[in-house]
Amino acid sequence: MIKEPGCVTEKLLRCADDPGEFISYSEWQDQQSIDKYRAGKAHEEIKRHSDSLKGGRPVVKRYDVV
Predict the structure, then answer these.
(1) Are the beta carbons of 4 and 42 closer than 8 angstroms?
(2) How many whole angstroms separate alpha carbon 59 and alpha carbon 66?
(3) DSSP string, 6-64
(4) What is the DSSP letter of 4?
(5) What is the pTM of this model?
(6) For burial by CB atoms within 10 Å, which of 12, 31, 47, 62 has the most?
(7) Distance linking the first and last C-alpha atoms of the chain
């Protein structure tokens, strides 16, 4: 993901209370960059890879800084 245009930072977070739970955290330059990434092949590949790790479909959520 970090190689995608507009991706500023990427981190994989592991839940301290549930070591089997992870969050992929990324910051992007703008919404347009996110939309382009999510419509592309790289996002599909990451989803397929994460499916095999957790045996289910990843949930994609967006958050705003408050």
Answers:
(1) yes
(2) 22
(3) TEEEEEEEE-SS-TT-EEEEEEES-HHHHHHHHTSHHHHHHHHHHHHHHSSPPPP----
(4) S
(5) 0.70
(6) 47
(7) 25
Q: How far apart are CA 33 and CA 6, in angstroms?
A: 5
What confidence tens digit (pLDDT) does each residue in 1-45 have? 899 999 999 998 888 888 777 888 999 999 999 999 999 998 888
Token duo for residue 6? 């507009």
Pick the closest to residue 12 from 56, 64, 57, 58 (CA basis): 58
CB 43 within 8 A of CB 60: no
Q: Which of 31, 50, 29 is nearest to 39 (CA)?
A: 31
Contact 29, 6 (CB under 8 A): yes
